[in-house]
Design a protein that fits this description.
This protein is mainly β. The protein folds into two domains: 3-50; 55-107, Thrombin, subunit H (Beta Barrel), CATH 2.40.10. 13% of the residues lie in helices and 47% in strands. It is built from one helix and ten strands, in the order αββββββββββ. The strands form three sheets. Strands 4-5-6-7 form a four-stranded antiparallel sheet, with no helix packed on it. Strands 1-2-3 form a three-stranded antiparallel sheet, with helices on one face. Strands 8-9-10 form a three-stranded antiparallel sheet, with no helix packed on it. A hairpin with a 2-residue loop joins strand 2 (35-41) and strand 3 (44-50). The model is unreliable at 13-19 (pLDDT under 50).
Length: 108
Amino acid sequence: MNKISFLLVAASLIAASSTCVADEITQVTTPQGNVTTTVQSATGTTTINSSAGQSMVTRSKDGTKIEMDSDNSVYTVYPDGSRVAAPNGVNTLMDGETITVKDGKRIP
């Protein structure tokens, strides 16, 4: 499961309930890039649909705003809202996760 989908699932679970333990999480991606994530728990089943083209906004450890699109494009976002392809290298996000960027794309 990629970080964007995980964050969408986490946000939905937080909004729906103060506590939830997932028994099973499944994810299906269509050729068009649409993602359906299903979370099954003791309290029920939650399904989250996301369309291709959605993006996730986060911050790097140094506070720089970063936007990641569903096609693995990574951008640095400036205070005026403009964005440019993120520089090559390893970036550490606020939560400690690291992402590697090459030519403006996140690579595994």
